[in-house]
Amino acid sequence: MSQIRRSSLRKRFHQGLRRLFSSLPKPIRFGIYRRMVDCDPAPSERLELKVADTREELDACFRILHDAYVGSGFMKPDPSGMRVTQYHALPTTTTLCAKYDGVVVGTISMVREGVFGFPLQSVFDLEGVRAKGGKIAEISALAVAPAFRKTGGAILFPLMKFMHQYCTEYFDTRHLVIAVNPDKIELYEALLFFQRLREQTVDNYDFANGAPAVGATLDLHEADRIFEKAYRGRAPRKNLHHYFFRQNLANIRLPERRFHTTNDPVMTPALLDHFFNHAVPVFAQMDDRKKALLWSVYREDAQFRAVLPMLSGGGQDLGRALRQYPRYSIRCPGHLDIRAANDSQLGHFDLDVIEVSAHGFQAECDHDLPLQIDGTVEIELGQHERAHVTARAVRRKDTEQGSFYGFRIDEPDRHWRSFVSTLEMGTTTKDLAA
User: Fold this and answer.
1) How far is 146 from 376, CA to CA, in rounded Å?
2) Is 277 exposed, middle or buried, given 0-12, 13-18 or 19+ CB atoms closer than 10 A?
C-alpha cells in the first residue's frame, strides 16, 4: 500500500472518529474532555514562565506564533517569519512566554482595551459583557512550539495558569474574551467554561486571514465557583479548579512592580523601531487615524518621536482632537476624609485612583461625594509608598461601570510628585521598578 493511500485512510479514519464523537450528547463530550486533563502541579525546574520583555524573547514569541498561524491557515506566510500586530505595539498588551532550558517554546498575549480596541470587536458584539462592568482582556496569540505540542499540556496548562493569575492579580481584568476556530470552541467551553457570544459563528474573521471564528467570554468573578463545582472530587492532576485557583507554581515569574500599575509595557523606542518598522512594516500600513492614536500614547516622550509613523499630511494634525492616553494605567486604593470647621468628621470614603496628573487624579467611588469641599486623601501608591494630599472632588461622571470623580490637588506632597514624575519619565515597567 502506497504512503499516499495510507495517509488518506488515516485521514478518513480520524474524520470518522470526529463525526462519531460530535454525535455524542454535549454533557458526555464535555465529560470526556475533562477526563483528558493532565496538569502537573510541580513542573520541571527547566520550565520558566515570564513576561516577554527582551528582543530575543519577543522575536521567538512572534516566530512561534507565525508558524502556528500559518499552519492553521490563520495567516499567509510573512517574509519576516513573524506575526507582529498593531496591538503588540501598545502598553495595554502583554505577551507571556514559556521557556524550556532558556528557549521560548510557547506564548500567549492578553490585549486589554486600548486605543485600537480589541481585535474581535470588529465582528463580535461585546455589549452584554460591558454591561456587567469591569475591564475586559482579549486572549490572543496562543501558540506552542511543534516539539512541545504533544506533551499532554506540559506547556499549555502552565501557560494558561500564568495567564489566569496575571489577569486576576496584575492586569485589572474581570472578563476574558476569545475568538477561536469552531473546531476548538468546545475545548474552551468544556475545560474553561467560556460562554459563546450571542451563539454565533463568524464565517470570515479578518484578524485570522478570513478563517471562521466563534467568540466566547469568561467572567473571572464567577470562575472560581464554576470551576469548583465542575471539578469537585477529581484527582489533583485532573482538577483544573485546584490548579488555577489554589495551586502555586514556582516556575511563574511575575513582574516586579514598585507601584500599583495594571499593565507592564516593555516596548522601548528601539524595540518599536525593530519590530514595527524594520522586521514587519506594521506602522507603515496604518491609516492616519491609527497613526494619530499611536502618537496619543507615546508623543510626550521625545525618545519615541523618531520611530513613530508620520501622518500622510506630514504630522501637523497629530495633536488635534486626540487626548493623550497614559502609558501606565493604575489602580491605587485610597480614602478621603472630609471634616467640618469644628474638626468633626463629615465622611470617610474609599476610593480607587485610576488616573493621575501633577495636580489631580480621577477615582472611582461607590458613594455620593460632595463637590468643591476640601478633604484629606491618603493614597497607597505601592506596597511601601503612600501619598497624603489635600484635594477636592470637582466633577462627577456616572457610567454603567460606576461613578467616577475628578479631583483637584491643592497640596501635593513629595511622594505624589515623585510618583507622577516617575510615571511620566518611565518607558517600561523595569524603569518604574528601578
Assistant:
1) 57
2) middle
Tell the burial category of 148 from Cβ atoms under 10 Å away from its Cβ (0-12, 13-18, 19+).
middle
Which residue carries 511622594 as its cell?
Answer: 415
The per-residue b/e assignment along 180-191, b for 16 or more CB within 10 angstroms, e otherwise, is bbeeebbebbbb
Local structure of 309: helix, strand or coil: coil
Segment (H or E) for 229: helix 220-231
Distances (CA, A) of 146 to 61, 149, 183, 424: 13, 5, 19, 41
In order, the DSSP letters of 230-283 are HHTT--GGG-HHHHHHT---TTEEPPP-SS-BS------HHHHIIIIIIIS-TG
Which one-letter DSSP state was computed for residue 397? E
What distance in Å separates the CA atoms of residue 122 and residue 111, rounded to the nearest whole number? Answer: 14
State the pTM of this model: 0.90
Q: Residue 165: enclosing H or E segment and its boundaries? A: helix 156-169
- Looking only at the bridges linking them, the beta strands covering 136-144 and 175-180 are parallel
Residue type, 371: L
Alpha helices per DSSP H over 72-151: 127-131
Weakest-pLDDT range from 148-162, 226-240, 331-345? 331-345
CA distance 337 to 406: 16
With contact defined as beta carbons under 8 Å apart, do 338 and 345 qualify? yes
Does residue 183 surpass a pLDDT of 70? yes
What is the DSSP track for 329-387? -B-EEEEEEEE-TTS-EEEEEEEEEEEEETTEEEEEESSPPPSS--EEEEEEEETTEEE
Map residue 210 onto helix, strand or coil. Answer: coil
CB 62 within 8 A of CB 69: no
Residue 402 has pLDDT above 80, yes or no: yes
